[in-house]
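Q: Hi! First time asking for a complex rather than a single chain. Here are the components, and I think there are two in total. Is that enough to go on?
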Amino acid sequence: MTDIIAKLRDESLDDYAANESLKVNSDFLRGKLMDDMADNATGAVSPDDTQLTKFHGFYMQDDRDVRDQRRKKKLEPLYSFMVRLRIAGGRMSSQQWLTLDDVAQRYANNTLRITTRQTFQYHGVFKSNLRAHLKTVNDAMIDTIAACGDVNRNVTSTANPHRSAIHRQVYDLAAAISDHLLPRTRAYHEIFLGEERVAGGPDQDEPLYTKHYLPRKFKIGLAVPPDNETDVLTNDVAFIAIVENGELKGFNVAVGGGMGSTHGEPDTYPRRGSIIGYCDVDQTVDVAEKIMLVQRDNGDRKNRKHARLKYTVDTMGVEGFRAELEKYLGYTLGEERAFEFTTTGDILGWYQGEDGQWHYGLFVENGRIRDYPDDNPIHAGMQIMSGMREIARIHDGDIVLSCNQNLIITNVKPELREQIDAIIDRYRMLKDVTPLRQHSIACVAFPTCGLAMAESERYLPTLLDRFDAIMKDAGLENDPIIVRMTGCPNGCGRPFMAEIGFVGKAIGRYNLYLGGDFTGTRLNKMYRENIDEKTILEELTPMIHRYAKEREAGEHFGDYVVRVGIIKATENGLDFHTA
Amino acid sequence: MSQGPLLDTNSPLNGDQAQRLNDVLGGMNRDQMTWLSGYLAGLNASGGQLSAASPAGATQTVSALPEITVLYGSQTGNAEGVAEQARDRAKAHGFNVRLLDMADVTKKDLKDPTNLMVVVSTQGEGDPPDTAIGFYELINGRKAPKLDGHRFAVLGLGDSSYDQFCQMGKEFDARLAELGAERIGDRVDCDVDYEEPAEAWIETVLARYAELSGATTAAAEQDGPATQASESQWSKKNPFHAEILDTVILNDDGSSKETRHIELSLEGSGLVYEPGDALGVVPQNDPAYVDELLEKLKISHDTELDTGSRIRDALLAEFEVTTLTRPFLEKWAELSNDAELQRILSDEARDEFKEWVYGRHIIDVIEQFPVENLDAATFTQALRKLPPRLYSIASSYNADPDEVHLTVGVVRYEAHGRARNGVTTGYLSDHVQPGDTIPIYVDRNKNFKLPHDANTPIIMVGPGTGVAPFRAFMQERDDAGAEGDNWLFFGDQHFHTDFLYQAEWLNWREKGLLTRLDVAFSRDQAEKVYVQDRMREKGEDIYAWLERGAHFYVCGDGDRMAADVHQALLDIAKEHGGLDEDAAAQYIRELQQSKRYQRDVY
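A: Yes, that's all I need. Here is the structure of the assembled complex.
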């Protein structure tokens, strides 16, 4: 077992990535944030502190649409913060929903965005509103701690914990893991909630993370086969539920999933998690912790582009990693048990759970909850935000966010079903959408994301209009294909697991990836580089028509393109770049 | 080499000159001689005119004329300029002259009978210039000196569009007489176009003093030189046509303000300016407004005036045709013979008048009180000259000698059913664009200057467009590598849209040039917050800065902000200096008189 502190003590931090000294010298994530918050001459925080705010759940961004105009006007960029909540398993009460909705209206840009990791993001939160924002959210028993940063992020679980007793059990574990791996520093409470700092208090005590925290972000997800709506193998750690005779026995454990990569750097690649064994239910939290500690002590702290667990696993080898993990655990993992995934989608519309309770899955395109104006070309007059507010007012139960950026209204009293249908109609919360669109994901990208190289959320709906037409021509309007788009290769929209993936290269230009599978178990591979919409359509139109004619019974598009040799299957991350 | 004394026989000098020069040279050491030889060579090379020199060949006896004291109270430097001109003219006529700033005057200065020429400007609502407050209080207070045996004449500078036009001139004129001094000439009140009447007043008063002394003044053979020998050829009367290089609205979308940053080229002009100086812009009136005016007056565009110019051209370039002044209204009341107009102008309606005039323009009066068959000459005689507008310069000559920058708040509002534009701001924003030229000149402001010592800390309070000169200050101190601390208080309506030059302030702060930056945005929260509130929050530090010699500058709105900031400063002196009301007032007054508290308010 390596002691990270002992290891780092002997070397100068100068040899490590800049973020490493930032963390160590931050006084447990305080940095100069107190001063930054008091400085009303700028909407920004100081450059070093922009790294620290991530640990507290928010990113500094600026409105890239107005950046140039403001430069000419001698104004600083229009800085605001993206605030991401920590909502384990995406589950909240309808009361909490109303608070979060109110916060969006008062302190953000009047929208809520369901992320691909089952939580809400707020955009456009100005520094002057930040404390009020966080305080209000906190008063509703939700926080933003560790929603970003080099720590364990929001733990994802199934889209509906109320679907069965098993789902509920899995959700409870997700919440337990989330709580267990939470940073212990009181920095957040002092800086944003006005808590007094207690000298020599428990803040020095960061037993799991130490002052070094993790080398990079760390993500954990759980899934209950045959559903894989959490896209569980894209996580650093995946727990795949093993159910026997209607009883949750334990989990297959996979490590080393992750999407991020960098254009033109083949040393970076997306990776699907590798299953390294099996653990019992009561070992789950411990296994999650110990995997995190192996990563804490072995992850690459010199090169942030090589710091995720997936690279640690490939450096140590899957077997080597398991052996090291078992040293931390003090016991061995069991052997992988059989399971099968059949879908990554959510159940939409009305359905009944195991106990006969009713649930409603609402499709939310790109997860954006807002009221669209009547002249919006794609979502004319859809008032999803107002509609959900109405529903949350009459509904007494949980509302759950999914990794597909949809939401599920759970345990609906039978007598409310008609009312909810009426609200959905009245606020035009749903439009006719094809299965293709239902299975699509886009990240935020422009104008707020600083990493975006191309449009995503603002563009994919338009591109899907074209695809819908092609699918109709080909007679496939009732068939799903998983299409995902991101504005950069960091992979927030999990594009590398899509059947058709688009990753932004420049304004209006994308890399096209093909060959992921429908159930979230195979990566795709780049098919064309840096192409515009015209070329995209020229490439895909004949391919979709050919698929319509040549597919075998039940064969999904991603499997078809591999079978007929349009693209070679990617077995795992290391051969992602191999043609 | 030694030489004998100068005589009228061995030099071109006359006997008197030779004798006086011998007296001077006899007491000089070698260094002084060396300097003098260079000085004379330089003087000769520049044309040989020495401003203070008596004209060659003057034959009057100097002692026949009394000594004159030119006493001035000046805010922006106009009154000071006139006073200097008076001094130069008096010297040219052979008077002995003493130039005295009201900031420096003590009771002792007025002990012996003096022949005073008083030049004073009026600020805001009839207030004295900052540096004259002490003197004003002195002569109006219990300790006022007796002035029996003194003689005086007063010239007031002001702006007739203000209600309290030339109030200070009036008060000084009355008060000096009350204290026993003899008024030797009628007071003259000058409007914004003050140069000609000021010159006439100077000559009249000098002639009167000469007459009283029984002597006649020598006819000065040439005009005295301009107020500053180094002044460029460009002036209000002969402006430089500067090309507009760039203009950008500094406010972002969604702001209710329109503040323009305008960059002008000075290339080839030879114009030089210092931080704190103003740029005079000679504007043109809005052609659409002028056309409407002529239509309402039923006067043809082509009507020729006595001067030979067409009336439309004259109204565009020469006359003030928007702002209402009392003299215009008096004339109009006479022409229209309208009872209501006459009532408004009566002394009893003084308070109502102010409100009545607010937002009204000349065109509104013409519309409401029509005068039939008005001829062009009568109309133009009722108007005053179109004054140039002065803008505090927002750039440093030393940082970029080829350019000058302005920060112009565009005035747009609706009143009496019409959309209004400020004359010059409308001209700058709507009628000219990059590539065009506009007539400009530099208007010096000696009373708004960086400390001579680059290590002296400064505190700058400049909300809104008041921030302009401080941008010049920072550019200057940046360029010079000045090490004094700099502290800016800025305020406006909204942080996101109205933080003028935000990126530059932040950059200077990052570099360490701008030591502190405090901002107040009044409309970003329920309770309005202004610069004076931020000052009070930081009062302890402000007082500490003042105690270590900081200069304190205020620029911007003179209606309310300047007074609020002044009050905040008084309160800070009380709270953090442990001073009582009187001592705090004295503390601030001393700051003003030592020119450590300077204001450029409008």
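A: The two ends of chain A are 38 Å apart (CA to CA). Let me know if you'd like any chain examined more closely.
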